[in-house]
Amino acid sequence: MRYSFLSLLRNGLSGQSGWKPAWRDASPKPSYDVIIVGGGGHGLATAYYLASQHGIRNVAVIEKGYIGSGNAGRNTTIIRSNYLLPGNEPFYEFSMKLWEGLEQELNYNAMVSQRGILNLYHSDAQRDAYARRGNAMRLNGADSELLDTEGVRAMYPFLDFANARFPIRGGLLQRRAGTARHDAVVWGYARGADRLGVDIIQNCEVTGLIREGDVVTGVQTTCGEIRAGKVGLAVAGSSSKLAAMAGMRLPIESHVLQAFVSEGLKPLIDGVITFGAGHFYISQSDKGGLVFGGDIDGYNSYAQRGNLPVVEDVCEGGMALMPRIGRLRLLRMWGGIMDMSMDGSPIIDHAPLPGLYLNAGWCYGGFKATPASGWCFAHLLAKDEPHATGTAFRLDRFRTGHLIDEKGVGAQPNLH
What we know:
8-stranded mixed β-sheet, 10 helices
């Protein structure tokens, strides 16, 4: 069923009785051309683009829980392309362009809101760094504006400009950035992929990889063996677990990243704001809650929950930026399992074993990359060669020394 004003009117007049499920709850077939392990945004986007761009429709997406139950439903919904390095900026700008046409392509309201993102700076050195980043963005076709103190004050007069430790000197603004509804993105890609014949198999956990010699030829699951010509892993923080089934040790650590939502407020923050003197970012949801987050918890974990010291640290960052939020009550919090790569940038590449492909290492950047990640991973699976915007995300860069160290802190995943 195609969603439109007419379908809404027709079903409204018929007592809402004509709606159909957005996707089938498929049972696994004995074999597929491609199996995607992971029913989050990246896995579902990959399946959709395999079918829509490459005509490969004998595809299964396998998810151990329900689709979107991992990091896709546990993030702060920010989309942006304000990166610096050549390996990253073209890729995220490509993703930003896909976001801009996503709802029309999927015929689904993903609530993409280009409300802008403002990265604040607090010193002359930060201003120079942001000017460099803004120029790199423009060279790659993205938009950027460098604001001074008064420019920021005109947008957000309630910020603490006179903070003795962290005075606000200005900010780097990308107006095309913003937010999207995370679960709606998952549902939209699932509906689009299902419409093109992809099987979405939920509550089916992968317990092993089937190998014939060194070639991966399928997966063992709680629903039985499923054969495939190619197997793609898009499982975020569980990437190391799945790779271990193939005898591989990835350059990835799994860490918990917490996010928070406050009680609802009247409209306060139009866009997204990041604090330049600490790791804190905040926006406001359509329901009025302030959505914010900060650093990872700093220890390895597979638990979808965090600890109190990081809660305090994130809230302190928010208070330093805008003291007025100190009287708010937290409504809820959650944790996602981040697959932190050694240089803070992702991996989209063949695995050392033929028939196995990797989509991992997204660190903090997974949600914003969803469309481009799916597009590039689908291209790799279909053509056996990297897409033009994903050529830098090779697995062997850690061996050859070609790191994409966006943050400039070396090969230490807990610092990215």
